[in-house]
Amino acid sequence: MTLPRLRIAHQLALLMAGAVVLAVLGVGALSLWSLRSGFNEYLQQRDEEQLTRLVKLVERRAVADPSMAWLRNDREAMRELMDELTGRGARRRGPPPPPILGFPPPPGLGRPPPPDAPMPGNLPDRVVIFDAQGVRLGGHEQPPGLPRSVRAVLVDGVTVATLEMSLELAPEGGDAIFLQRQTKVLVGAALFMALLSISAAWLMARRWSRPLQALQLVTHRIASGQRAQLLVPQGALEIAQLMEDVNTMTQSLSRLENARRLWIAQISHELRTPLSVLRGEIESIEDGARQPTPAVMAGLRDEVLQLTRLVNDLHTLSVADVEGLHCEFALGDAQGALWRAAQRFQVQALQRGLILNLPAPVGEPIPACWDFGRVEQLLGNLLSNSLRYTEAPGEVRVQWIFSPEALTLTVEDSAPGVSQADLSQLFEPLFRVDRARQRGDDHGSGLGLSIVRTIVLAHGGRVTASHSPLGGLRICVELPLSTPGASR
């Protein structure tokens, strides 16, 4: 048989209530046992004290009559002895109380108790006095088998009598009433505390489970693809931190979903533009409106190349997101590779009316363990981005500084610049800044800087974007010369 699964509030309530009830019952049982045990010890100690006093009283009387004839077969002498032990005899023989303010005392005040009034602890019923020969002188005969306390009555060192007192197996009379009353109080207190603990456990469990229920609702909405609202952190510290983590996850998923939708829309737009041009040109040739001249075919080829570059860049980014960018690391000359990659853009810069400033070449090679093809692609994307968006006459400046462990590569350009809000999004796929950084129809796919960031991360470096003192954009790349994990 499979037990049904309980809600966490029920489990917490049962757990806390069970623990507290067990503790209350345990403490109650221990207190009850301690009360009964301590009360029995108190009764035994009281009986021993009374028996000791009784022995002294008998010894004082036995000094005058060691034969104990004063007690033999005299029930009234036994009662007087017990009255003297408990002080009742003094109250019987004492004078009546004086009148109060001239009025006589109330009826019954000062009168001796009735002869059959019980003694404390029923002592007279449990005490038996024997003479030296073992003959019972006074007291009631006790049932056999009861535990007894035996004391000798000595006169000048000679035993003239023996006192036996049967021990109480259970409290009787007023002692029993007192013990019952205390037991009822303890049991009632234990039941009250158990009920109180169950109620408190239920309330605390509901309070603890409320944020967990909110977490369950939000995660269920996320799992079903719905947009979930942010949680208000509450409850215990761990639960509040968990709710904050869920809020962070919700915001990240929301951003990813928005980026996915935007990326799909932008990809479709980027693919549609060259495809529309190709379709229009091909349909014009088919209709005879245009002739397949070399110029027309060159235009078609440029559109195909643009489409190919876009598809290749998308493939690079998608593979990097899923499997990580594939790099083939090898030892080589870092400075020579950068110089060769930057030199290829001199002619393009002149054609656009821009000045490309490069560092002076240094003869000594600088060893590095890179994927040099990817690093040249990185620098090429940075220069293509600057040359494409910088207005003529303008300047593009490239600097690289080598330290013993890393390369700092900086590419910056002149106006126009980039707004502060766009700086944080420059490396997002398919993101383009406003028209101030675009030159007519000459713009890229919006993937170049995203590929730059992917290459930098694959080499264990970092890339940042900021405003350039020249008035445009400044991109700084820090690349370690020996990539962690790369095989040499």
Helix/strand layout:
Elements lengths: L7 H57 L10 H12 L1 H6 L33 E5 L4 E3 L9 E8 L2 E9 L7 H50 L13 H51 L6 H30 L6 E4 H10 L2 H6 L2 E4 L9 E4 L1 H18 L4 E9 L3 E9 L5 H4 L24 H11 L3 E6 L3 E10 L8
Parallel strand pairs: 6-8
Antiparallel strand pairs: 1-2, 1-4, 3-4, 5-7, 8-9, 9-11, 10-11
Descriptive report:
The chain is α+β, with helices and mostly antiparallel strands. It has three domains: 1-92 and 120-229, no CATH class; 237-320, Signal transduction histidine kinase, dimerisation/phosphotransfer (DHp) domain (Helix Hairpins); 325-480, Heat Shock Protein 90, CATH 3.30.565. The protein is 52% helix and 15% strand. It has eleven helices and eleven strands. The protein has helices at 8-64, 75-86, 88-93, 174-223, 237-287, 294-323, 334-343, 346-351, 372-389, 420-423, 448-458, and strands at 127-131, 136-138, 148-155, 158-166, 330-333, 354-357, 367-370, 394-402, 406-414, 462-467, 471-480. The protein has a five-stranded mixed beta sheet with strand order 6-8-9-11-10. Strands 2-1-4-3 form a four-stranded antiparallel beta sheet, covered by helices on one side. Strands 5-7 form a two-stranded antiparallel sheet. Strand 3 (148-155) and strand 4 form a beta hairpin. The longest helix is centred in the first third of the chain and has 57 residues, at 8-64. The chain is rod-shaped, with a radius of gyration of 53 Å. It starts with 7 loop residues before the first helix and ends in an 8-residue tail after the last strand. 19% of the residues are buried. Residues 90-94 and 96-120 have low confidence and may be disordered.
